[in-house]
DNA sequence: GATGCGTGGGC
DNA sequence: TGCCCAAGCAT
């Protein structure tokens, strides 16, 4: 309130020059030695940019190394089975990234002879390549003067020009792209874009930025106005929606039944325990899983409640009941959608986070037959 | 423009 | 501990 909301969209030439020189000089001395910075192979850059979407560098590095060993070239990824690609992605989250990347790489082979297209319009049409990723690949791999505005750049630029606009809005991102365009030097577009991101990651951090060691502190309007800790403005998201779900724990000897989830929605296409959403009105836990199984064409007898737990996604809060069940006509299960896996290997076949927690809970309760442990509600 | 989509780390 | 966040994109 009462703040000037108008960002500096026509910065002075001297300011632009100073930002460029200072930032590039700082980047030359301080840029991290990251595996995707070994060379400018557009495929390597591409994979890194997809993995880094909403994901921290430290988390990405081991996945990236493994992925590049498994699929060292664009062609090798294009030829791979989707199953194998998803497997390599397992644990990283946002699995549509992997499916889109796989699909896009195949398109590059088919439509562009295996060469990553260098035109903004062409590369932006590839699945999973949005404004940021297109700009990142074009500037880093091909030295094109194209903006690459991610969360870091939004924050850094907001502070540099003391902008009070909400960075969660699309319109703000577009304005910042215009500003970035004015800043990117002709000779080193990729380094400059990375320098902005690197500054955001290492110095101009969301909480308590290290202004005292910042190379561009003398050029920063927010710093000059003493409002660096108030910026950027970012509207808060909605709280996770609560939902009750039931996991079926269906055994055959040493094996446990897993199924493939629907190809759309939460954890799309991932293997996991049979899962149903409980309708709030229904009382008996597990009743709906029986309904689901019978709808799919086989009978099920419900057993004990093995445990209850809570799991938090960014947008959903799951209250989970794990129910033991006995299936009498296993042979009707379609192998396309159902697998029997060894219990000991379940956490590597299935979704490696929610289910790991569930399995731990189940084992704990099996060791304590006198009563359910870990009851949360 | 708003919403759905994962996970792990930091305070 | 319960949030907030981290190199976004598709719909």
UniProtKB/TrEMBL annotation:
* Cofactor binding comment, as recorded: Binds 1 [4Fe-4S] cluster.
**Annotated ranges, domain HhH-GPD:** 51-202
User: What catalytic activity does the UniProt entry give for this protein?
Assistant: Hydrolyzes free adenine bases from 7,8-dihydro-8-oxoguanine:adenine mismatched double-stranded DNA, leaving an apurinic site
The catalytic activity of this protein is classed by the Enzyme Commission as 3.2.2.31
| Matches recorded under Gene3D superfamilies | Helix-hairpin-Helix base-excision DNA repair enzymes (C-terminal), Hypothetical protein, domain 2, Nucleoside Triphosphate Pyrophosphohydrolase
Cofactors (names):
[4Fe-4S] cluster
Recorded hits in InterPro entries, A to Z, give: A/G_AdeGlyc_MutY, DNA_glycosylase, Endonuclease3_FeS-loop_motif, HhH-GPD_domain, HhH_base_excis_C, HhH_motif, MIG/MutY, MutY_C
Q: Which GO terms describe its molecular function?
A: 4 iron, 4 sulfur cluster binding; 8-oxo-7,8-dihydroguanine DNA N-glycosylase activity; adenine/guanine mispair binding; metal ion binding; oxidized purine DNA binding; purine-specific mismatch base pair DNA N-glycosylase activity
Q: Which top EC class is named for this enzyme in its record?
A: hydrolase
Q: Name one GO biological process term.
A: base-excision repair
Write down the Pfam families for this protein, in alphabetical order.
Answer: HHH, HhH-GPD, NUDIX_4
Under NCBIfam families, the record lists: mutY
Provide the family line.
Belongs to the Nth/MutY family.
Q: What is this protein called?
A: Adenine DNA glycosylase
* The species this protein was found in: Melghirimyces algeriensis
């Amino acid at each position: 309130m009462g703040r000037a909301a108008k960002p500096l969209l026509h910065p002075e030439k001297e300011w632009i020059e100073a930002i460029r020189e200072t930032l590039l000089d700082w980047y030359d001395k301080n840029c991290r030695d990251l595996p995707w910075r070994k060379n400018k192979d557009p495929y390597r850059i591409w994979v890194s940019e997809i993995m880094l979407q909403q994901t921290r560098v430290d988390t990405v590095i081991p996945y990236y190394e493994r992925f590049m060993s498994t699929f060292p070239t664009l062609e090798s990824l294009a030829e791979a089975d989707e199953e194998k690609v998803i497997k390599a992605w397992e644990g990283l989250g946002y699995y549509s990234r992997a499916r889109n990347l796989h699909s896009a790489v195949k398109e590059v082979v088919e439509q562009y002879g295996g060469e990553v297209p260098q035109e903004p319009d062409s590369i932006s049409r590839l699945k999973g390549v949005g404004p940021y990723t297109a700009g990142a690949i074009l500037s880093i791999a091909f030295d094109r003067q194209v903006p690459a505005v991610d969360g870091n750049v939004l924050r850094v630029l907001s502070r540099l020009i003391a902008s009070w606009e909400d960075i969660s809005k699309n319109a703000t991102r577009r304005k910042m792209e215009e500003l970035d365009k004015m800043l990117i030097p002709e000779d080193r577009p990729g380094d400059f874009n990375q320098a902005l991101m690197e500054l955001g990651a290492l110095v101009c951090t969301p909480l308590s930025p290290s202004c005292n060691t910042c190379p561009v502190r003398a050029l920063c309007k927010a710093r000059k106005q003493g409002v660096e800790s108030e910026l950027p403005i970012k509207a808060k998201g909605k709280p996770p929606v609560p939902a009750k779900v039931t996991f079926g724990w269906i055994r055959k000897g040493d094996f446990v039944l897993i199924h493939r989830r629907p190809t759309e929605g939460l954890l799309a296409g991932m293997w996991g325990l049979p899962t149903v959403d409980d309708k709030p009105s229904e009382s008996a836990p597990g009743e709906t899983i029986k309904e689901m199984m019978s709808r799919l064409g086989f009978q099920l007898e419900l057993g004990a409640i093995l445990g209850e737990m809570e799991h938090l996604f960014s947008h959903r809060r799951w209250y989970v009941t794990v129910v033991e069940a006995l299936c009498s006509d296993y042979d009707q299960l379609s192998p396309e959608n159902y697998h029997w896996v060894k219990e000991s290997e379940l956490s590597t076949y299935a979704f490696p986070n929610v289910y790991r927690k569930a399995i731990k809970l189940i084992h704990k309760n099996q060791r304590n037959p006198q009563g359910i442990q870990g009851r949360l509600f």
